[in-house]
Protein backbone atom coordinates (compact mmCIF):
# COMPACT_ATOMS: atom_id res chain seq x y z
CA UNK A 1 0.00 0.00 0.00
CA UNK A 2 1.10 3.53 -0.81
CA UNK A 3 -0.09 6.89 0.52
CA UNK A 4 0.44 10.24 -1.16
CA UNK A 5 1.27 12.75 1.56
CA UNK A 6 0.02 16.15 0.45
CA UNK A 7 2.59 18.33 2.17
CA UNK A 8 5.78 20.16 1.29
CA UNK A 9 6.95 20.18 4.90
CA UNK A 10 9.96 17.86 5.21
CA UNK A 11 9.53 17.48 8.98
CA UNK A 12 5.94 16.27 8.59
CA UNK A 13 6.98 13.94 5.79
CA UNK A 14 9.72 12.34 7.89
CA UNK A 15 7.23 11.71 10.68
CA UNK A 16 4.61 10.16 8.38
CA UNK A 17 7.26 7.96 6.83
CA UNK A 18 8.58 6.81 10.22
CA UNK A 19 5.08 6.00 11.47
CA UNK A 20 3.79 4.29 8.33
CA UNK A 21 6.77 2.32 7.04
CA UNK A 22 6.76 -0.20 9.92
CA UNK A 23 3.14 -0.95 8.93
CA UNK A 24 4.24 -1.73 5.39
CA UNK A 25 2.77 1.50 4.01
CA UNK A 26 4.96 3.42 1.62
CA UNK A 27 4.73 7.22 1.61
CA UNK A 28 5.31 9.49 -1.37
CA UNK A 29 5.48 13.23 -1.24
CA UNK A 30 3.01 14.96 -3.53
CA UNK A 31 5.88 17.15 -4.76
CA UNK A 32 7.45 14.04 -6.30
CA UNK A 33 4.32 13.30 -8.31
CA UNK A 34 3.05 16.64 -9.61
CA UNK A 35 4.53 20.11 -9.98
CA UNK A 36 1.69 22.45 -9.07
CA UNK A 37 1.79 25.61 -6.97
CA UNK A 38 0.73 25.23 -3.33
CA UNK A 39 -2.93 26.11 -2.66
CA UNK A 40 -3.75 29.14 -0.53
CA UNK A 41 -4.65 28.13 3.01
CA UNK A 42 -7.68 30.42 3.29
CA UNK A 43 -9.56 28.43 5.94
CA UNK A 44 -10.23 29.75 9.42
CA UNK A 45 -9.79 26.32 11.06
CA UNK A 46 -7.20 23.55 10.81
CA UNK A 47 -9.89 21.26 9.41
CA UNK A 48 -10.83 23.68 6.62
CA UNK A 49 -7.19 24.08 5.60
CA UNK A 50 -6.55 20.34 5.71
CA UNK A 51 -9.58 19.83 3.42
CA UNK A 52 -8.37 22.54 1.02
CA UNK A 53 -4.97 20.84 0.69
CA UNK A 54 -6.31 17.27 0.49
CA UNK A 55 -8.92 18.15 -2.17
CA UNK A 56 -6.52 20.27 -4.19
CA UNK A 57 -3.79 17.64 -4.42
CA UNK A 58 -6.26 14.78 -4.91
CA UNK A 59 -7.63 16.63 -7.95
CA UNK A 60 -4.11 17.34 -9.22
CA UNK A 61 -2.95 13.70 -8.86
CA UNK A 62 -6.22 11.77 -9.19
CA UNK A 63 -4.90 9.70 -6.27
CA UNK A 64 -6.00 9.46 -2.62
CA UNK A 65 -4.13 12.26 -0.82
CA UNK A 66 -3.46 12.73 2.88
CA UNK A 67 -3.12 16.36 4.01
CA UNK A 68 -2.09 17.67 7.44
CA UNK A 69 -2.91 21.09 8.77
CA UNK A 70 -1.42 21.72 12.15
CA UNK A 71 -0.14 24.40 14.45
CA UNK A 72 0.49 25.72 17.89
CA UNK A 73 -2.15 27.32 20.16
CA UNK A 74 -0.81 29.19 23.19
CA UNK A 75 -3.36 29.78 25.97
CA UNK A 76 -1.99 33.09 27.23
CA UNK A 77 -2.00 34.41 23.64
CA UNK A 78 -5.68 33.59 23.18
CA UNK A 79 -4.87 30.54 21.05
CA UNK A 80 -2.36 32.27 18.77
CA UNK A 81 -0.63 31.60 16.44
CA UNK A 82 -3.22 28.88 15.66
CA UNK A 83 -3.99 28.49 11.97
CA UNK A 84 -1.41 31.20 11.31
CA UNK A 85 1.43 29.17 12.88
CA UNK A 86 3.34 28.83 9.60
CA UNK A 87 3.09 32.58 8.83
CA UNK A 88 3.14 33.99 12.37
CA UNK A 89 6.04 36.33 11.61
CA UNK A 90 4.74 37.23 8.12
CA UNK A 91 3.92 35.61 4.77
CA UNK A 92 7.49 34.78 3.73
CA UNK A 93 8.91 33.77 7.08
CA UNK A 94 10.71 30.74 8.44
CA UNK A 95 10.67 28.69 11.66
CA UNK A 96 13.37 30.86 13.18
CA UNK A 97 11.44 34.11 12.68
CA UNK A 98 8.26 32.50 14.01
CA UNK A 99 10.06 31.26 17.12
CA UNK A 100 11.60 34.68 17.71
CA UNK A 101 8.16 36.28 17.56
CA UNK A 102 6.73 33.65 19.92
CA UNK A 103 9.45 34.14 22.54
CA UNK A 104 9.00 37.88 22.34
CA UNK A 105 5.20 37.65 22.69
CA UNK A 106 5.66 35.54 25.85
CA UNK A 107 8.43 37.66 27.40
CA UNK A 108 6.30 38.82 30.36
CA UNK A 109 4.53 35.50 30.88
CA UNK A 110 5.86 33.20 33.63
CA UNK A 111 6.68 29.58 32.72
CA UNK A 112 3.66 28.06 34.49
CA UNK A 113 1.32 30.26 32.45
CA UNK A 114 2.87 29.31 29.11
CA UNK A 115 0.65 26.29 28.53
CA UNK A 116 0.16 25.46 24.87
CA UNK A 117 -1.19 22.78 22.57
CA UNK A 118 -0.15 21.39 19.25
CA UNK A 119 -3.18 20.55 17.11
CA UNK A 120 -3.32 18.44 13.96
CA UNK A 121 -6.16 17.80 11.56
CA UNK A 122 -5.71 15.12 8.92
CA UNK A 123 -7.90 14.72 5.85
CA UNK A 124 -7.55 11.79 3.45
CA UNK A 125 -9.43 12.61 0.25
CA UNK A 126 -10.27 9.99 -2.36
CA UNK A 127 -11.00 10.63 -6.06
CA UNK A 128 -14.50 9.13 -5.58
CA UNK A 129 -15.35 11.96 -3.16
CA UNK A 130 -14.93 10.09 0.12
CA UNK A 131 -13.08 11.81 2.95
CA UNK A 132 -11.66 10.41 6.17
CA UNK A 133 -10.79 12.91 8.91
CA UNK A 134 -8.85 12.57 12.13
CA UNK A 135 -7.60 14.95 14.78
CA UNK A 136 -4.96 14.94 17.49
CA UNK A 137 -3.79 17.27 20.23
CA UNK A 138 -0.67 17.42 22.39
CA UNK A 139 -0.14 19.58 25.51
CA UNK A 140 3.09 21.35 26.38
CA UNK A 141 4.68 24.50 27.75
CA UNK A 142 6.59 27.08 25.74
CA UNK A 143 10.06 27.61 27.16
CA UNK A 144 12.33 30.61 26.72
CA UNK A 145 15.33 28.98 25.15
CA UNK A 146 15.56 26.40 22.37
CA UNK A 147 16.82 22.96 23.40
CA UNK A 148 17.39 19.96 21.14
CA UNK A 149 17.92 19.61 17.41
CA UNK A 150 15.29 17.07 16.39
CA UNK A 151 11.84 17.81 15.01
CA UNK A 152 11.01 21.07 13.23
CA UNK A 153 8.98 24.25 13.63
CA UNK A 154 8.35 25.17 17.25
CA UNK A 155 9.69 21.85 18.66
CA UNK A 156 12.84 23.10 20.38
CA UNK A 157 10.70 25.47 22.49
CA UNK A 158 7.86 23.03 23.15
CA UNK A 159 8.48 21.41 26.55
CA UNK A 160 6.68 18.10 27.04
CA UNK A 161 6.04 17.52 30.77
CA UNK A 162 5.74 13.72 30.49
CA UNK A 163 9.26 13.45 29.02
CA UNK A 164 10.70 16.45 30.88
CA UNK A 165 12.28 17.31 27.53
CA UNK A 166 11.43 19.42 24.55
CA UNK A 167 9.83 17.90 21.47
CA UNK A 168 13.21 18.42 19.75
CA UNK A 169 15.02 16.22 22.32
CA UNK A 170 12.97 13.05 21.95
CA UNK A 171 13.23 10.46 19.20
CA UNK A 172 10.90 10.43 16.21
CA UNK A 173 9.31 7.24 17.58
CA UNK A 174 8.67 8.95 20.93
CA UNK A 175 7.30 12.02 19.21
CA UNK A 176 4.97 9.94 17.03
CA UNK A 177 3.67 8.11 20.11
CA UNK A 178 2.47 11.30 21.83
CA UNK A 179 2.31 14.12 19.28
CA UNK A 180 -0.76 15.73 17.77
CA UNK A 181 0.23 14.27 14.38
CA UNK A 182 1.04 10.81 15.75
CA UNK A 183 -2.27 10.62 17.62
CA UNK A 184 -4.27 11.88 14.64
CA UNK A 185 -2.56 9.32 12.44
CA UNK A 186 -3.32 6.49 14.89
CA UNK A 187 -6.96 7.56 14.83
CA UNK A 188 -7.00 7.73 11.02
CA UNK A 189 -5.49 4.24 10.75
CA UNK A 190 -8.14 2.88 13.13
CA UNK A 191 -10.85 4.28 10.89
CA UNK A 192 -9.14 2.67 7.90
CA UNK A 193 -8.87 -0.55 9.94
CA UNK A 194 -5.06 -0.56 9.65
CA UNK A 195 -3.21 -0.96 12.96
O1 LIG B 1 5.04 18.74 15.07
C1 LIG B 1 5.28 19.96 14.99
N1 LIG B 1 6.41 20.47 15.53
C2 LIG B 1 6.72 21.76 15.43
N2 LIG B 1 6.00 22.68 14.76
C3 LIG B 1 4.86 22.20 14.21
C4 LIG B 1 4.46 20.87 14.29
N3 LIG B 1 3.30 20.71 13.65
C5 LIG B 1 2.99 21.90 13.16
N4 LIG B 1 3.93 22.82 13.50
C6 LIG B 1 3.98 24.23 13.11
C7 LIG B 1 4.97 24.39 11.96
C8 LIG B 1 4.31 25.38 11.07
O2 LIG B 1 4.65 26.68 11.54
C9 LIG B 1 2.83 25.15 11.31
C10 LIG B 1 2.22 24.18 10.32
O3 LIG B 1 1.65 24.86 9.22
P1 LIG B 1 0.98 24.03 8.04
O4 LIG B 1 0.37 24.95 7.08
O5 LIG B 1 0.14 22.94 8.61
O6 LIG B 1 2.22 23.26 7.37
P2 LIG B 1 3.29 23.75 6.32
O7 LIG B 1 2.86 25.02 5.66
O8 LIG B 1 4.63 23.75 6.96
O9 LIG B 1 3.30 22.57 5.26
P3 LIG B 1 2.04 22.05 4.36
O10 LIG B 1 0.95 23.08 4.45
O11 LIG B 1 2.60 21.89 2.97
O12 LIG B 1 1.64 20.73 4.93
O13 LIG B 1 2.73 24.61 12.61
MG1 LIG C 1 0.95 25.24 4.99
Automatic annotation (TrEMBL):
**Top class in the EC scheme:** hydrolase
Which GO molecular function annotations are given, in alphabetical order?
dITP diphosphatase activity; ITP diphosphatase activity; metal ion binding; nucleotide binding; ribonucleoside triphosphate phosphatase activity; XTP diphosphatase activity
Give the SUPFAM superfamilies listed for this entry: ITPase-like
Q: Which residues form the active site?
A: 69 (proton acceptor)
Residue numbers binding substrate: 7-12, 70, 152-155, 175, 180-181
The lineage's top-level taxon is Bacteria
Q: Cite the entry's keywords alphabetically.
A: Hydrolase, Magnesium, Metal-binding, Nucleotide metabolism, Nucleotide-binding
The question of whether Protein biosynthesis is a record keyword is answered with no
Per its record, the protein catalyses: dITP + H2O = dIMP + diphosphate + H(+); XTP + H2O = XMP + diphosphate + H(+); ITP + H2O = IMP + diphosphate + H(+)
Q: Can you cite an annotated GO cellular component?
A: cytosol
Instruction: Quote the Pfam families the UniProt record gives.
Output: Ham1p_like
Give the residues the record marks as binding Mg(2+): 40, 69
InterPro entries according to UniProt: dITP/XTP_pyrophosphatase (IPR020922), ITPase-like_fam (IPR029001), RdgB/HAM1 (IPR002637)
Q: Which cofactor does it need?
A: Mg(2+)
| Cofactor binding description | Binds 1 Mg(2+) ion per subunit.
Set out the biological process GO terms recorded for this chain's protein: nucleotide metabolic process; purine nucleoside triphosphate catabolic process
EC number, UniProt record: 3.6.1.66
Which residue spans adopt a coiled-coil conformation according to this UniProt entry? none
What does the function comment of this entry state? Answer: Pyrophosphatase that catalyzes the hydrolysis of nucleoside triphosphates to their monophosphate derivatives, with a high preference for the non-canonical purine nucleotides XTP (xanthosine triphosphate), dITP (deoxyinosine triphosphate) and ITP. Seems to function as a house-cleaning enzyme that removes non-canonical purine nucleotides from the nucleotide pool, thus preventing their incorporation into DNA/RNA and avoiding chromosomal lesions.
Q: Which family does it belong to?
A: Belongs to the HAM1 NTPase family.
Q: How does it assemble?
A: Homodimer.
Name of this chain's protein:
dITP/XTP pyrophosphatase
Q: Which organism is it from?
A: Veillonella criceti
Amino acid sequence: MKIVVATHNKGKLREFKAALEPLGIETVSVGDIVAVPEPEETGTTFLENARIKAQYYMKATQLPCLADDSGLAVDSLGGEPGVYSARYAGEACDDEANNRKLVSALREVPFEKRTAHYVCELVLAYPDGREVKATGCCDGIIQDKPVGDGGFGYDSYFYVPQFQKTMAQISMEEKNAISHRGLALQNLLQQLKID
